[in-house]
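Below: protein 1.
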Amino acid sequence: MEIKSLGYRTDLLLLELSGSEFQDTGEYVVIRTPANPAYWWGNFLLYRSIFAAGDVKARLETYRAEFPAAKHVAFGIDSVDGEIGVEDELAAAGFTVDRNVVMTASEVVAPRRPDDESTYRFLTSDDDWEQLTQLGLATATMKVDDGYVEFTRRRDAAQRALVEAGHGKWFGAFDDGRLQSSLGLMFDGNGLARFQHVQTHPDDRNRGIASTLVHHASTYGLTDGGARTLVMVADPEYLAIRLYRALGFEDTETQLQFTLPPAA
């Protein structure tokens, strides 16, 4: 299955390792994650062309046919240039359009303001992983209801399984045993390493912890991890993107995501 986008190519690699299923129809790829049906970006359609006039309605019908039980709708476009097509039709249908920046680095520089108070190490224990789930809930941008808690626990269980199977590492910054910041770094075995879920507790932000953690993980990835290229996908409107650029990551392509949340 040929995927042009480096962002989606590494996304699908990690999903496949976690047990997701793919069906390539030619026009689009169906991505299903039976173990976590509430995971939007584990259950979506990845199209190979932009939205032409009338495609929004047609693709919505296709999505409902492929995912009849889904409450959400999620589309991607396998492209690198950020071109969408009929964005006005997407907006009229209620879609949110996200243009994320795919960033890469083959070497990194130390942060300008490194943190030397926290302890930086891998997540290993049951308590570490439970703290990861609680950190994910504390940093959530969506409403944290029972469904979101269940989604988070399933996602973290899948991530832990990948780590324990030897596909990557999960890193944390700790203050006397309390998880402050975390991220995952997963390897494709062919020189690519993809960052996952960089997050910092609101009480621990603006102290240089996240940049120190990213640098720590990057250094590991490019040495002990055997990676030649690090891949990071970032929100261009979020302040953290400046942190990644300062560490040596460069903008490479644009990843397009389209979501329609469950009806109220």
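Below: protein 2.
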Amino acid sequence: MPHDHSHAGHQHAAPPPGGGFNAAFAIGIALNLAFVAAETAGGLWANSAALLSDAGHNLSDVLSLALAWGAAWLAGRPATRRYTFGYRGATIQAALLNTALLYAALGFILWETIDHLRHPEPVNGRWVMLLAGAGILVNGVTALLFRSGQKGDVNVRGAYLHMLTDALVSVGVVAGGGLVVLTGWAWLDPVIGFIILAIIAYSSWGLLRDSLRLGLQAVPDGIDPEAVRNYLLQQPEVQSVHDLHIWSLSSSGHDAALMAHLVRPGGADAQWLATLSKGLEAEFHIHHSTVQVEDGPTPGGCHSGCQLPEAAAHGHA
């Protein structure tokens, strides 16, 4: 049976270099580098596992911010003949790498904390409180720099959550330092280190989950694939839908793309396709859609292991 293959889609300008957060990344990296140096020196002098663990995590945050900044800059580069989507996917790679680095740092810090618990030594609680108090200010200010963009971009959200978590952890370190001063119990310091690790691991789980989903090209959060399928089936004269794929081009939650095959006798003209594309953007925030229209069932069925057109309306692609 002959087919009329038509495609609907449109290009969108790449995001600005740095994702619009160049100043935030630069300030955040500078502040945290200075704080890591101060906290490491203070942790060694005060013999504090909590301070050293926090310094190690802050160092990983500096690397995280640098990677996120580099990826955001790459995402703003124009598309090329080989990289037809541009470099937007760099933000997904950065989110995955940052998550892996974070958990590697947690493993190292855990080892150091266990060693301090087995061999507790006197801790200068007042010095711990002073440096951790500075950490509240440094990390809190850095987190605020990314607050406006954290809801729509996993890459930016990673930077925001790292900084916000560190600010909250520093509050705990201040409290722990006070307890050491009041009680003289040196073993409280590594215990606080364990609590810090647990907080960081827990708060980072959502970032790990979302990064993996993006890397596996899952349907973006906020888009119901069945609702999209039903919307396509409701279009005039569309009989079935197959080879439906929805994914994100970058770490941004507003950078979704769609590819689908529709069975529609007589095919479709440019106006019908343009209306469909605008509807997908308005209803589901899918900004890049490619639709192939066929005038009958495709010989051999689907092309990517999905369900056949006759069953597509009753299941998932």
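The radius of gyration is 25 Å.
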